[in-house]
Amino acid sequence: MAARLETAIESSLSDDERGIRRLAASLYKVQLTFESRERIGEESRAALERELTDIAAEYITNRRYQTIGDIVVTVEFDLFVKSTTIQTVPSARASSDQSARPREEAELQSSNGITHRLLIPSGGAPVIIGRAAGVSLRLDDESISRHHCSLARRENGQLVLADLGSANGTMVNGRELQQGSAVEVCSGDVIKLGDLEFVFL
Questions:
Q1: DSSP state letters, 43-111
Q2: Vertex 97 angle, CA 138 and 119, to 5°
Q3: pLDDT class of 79 with cuts at 50, 70, 90
Q4: 105-200: in CATH 2.60.200.20
């Protein structure tokens, strides 16, 4: 099933705003036969969703693909399918953004010189930064919470950073954000997430 999921990811690729074919779908629906429902059960179905989401997130990250929104894989039992199928599910928000206006990119440079690029459409849903699988920017560090903070872009183009109740805090230019609070950020601002430090480019 992992190989089929990877094939679905590759089939979903489209060009980003720079004309590079690296924009992958973020939502995937796995359809299993209805007969397999009794064999798999609800708990195993939920575990399979988590496992496949991790696989998709790792595959997309390793190939430096990008998505609009967090990566989610759902598993359903379908009365009409005769074998396992995987479909990409276009996001209504993503479809609207792609047709109505160009996507916008934010760049964060870590202290070791690595630049992370995030697609954050104006007025779109926030992107999540954290340690959990499937978030927009996954940081594999123990000081980072599973859902550490979020970045959103207002209709006027202004970026807004919000702490999501992280265990080790979010700081902007040396000032710590209160849990659940948000602040505007721009080029040159320094943010610290747990033990990791980044600069907005």
A1: HHHHHHHHHHHHHHHHHHHHTT-B-SS--EEEEEEETT-SS-EEEE---HHHHHHHHHS---EEEEEET
A2: 25
A3: low
A4: yes
Q: How many residues does the chain have?
A: 201
Residues 149, 129 contacting (CB under 8 angstroms): yes
- How many whole angstroms separate alpha carbon 14 and alpha carbon 67? 10
Compute the mean pLDDT over every residue in the chain, rounded to the nearest whole number: 85
9 to 13, 73, 179, 187: CA distances (angstroms): 7, 11, 35, 32
Question: Taking the domains of the chain in order of start, what are their residue ranges?
Answer: 1-89, 105-200
pLDDT of residue 98: 47
DSSP state of 179: T
Residue 63 tokens read as: 């190939």
Strand 137-138 with 127-130, pairing? parallel
- Give the homologous superfamily in CATH for domain 1-89: FhaA, phosphopeptide-binding domain (DUF3662) (3.30.2320.60)
pTM, to two decimals: 0.51
What pLDDT score does 89 carry?
Answer: 67
pLDDT tens digits along 90-146: 544 444 444 444 447 888 999 888 888 888 877 777 889 999 988 889 999 999 999
DSSP state of 165: S
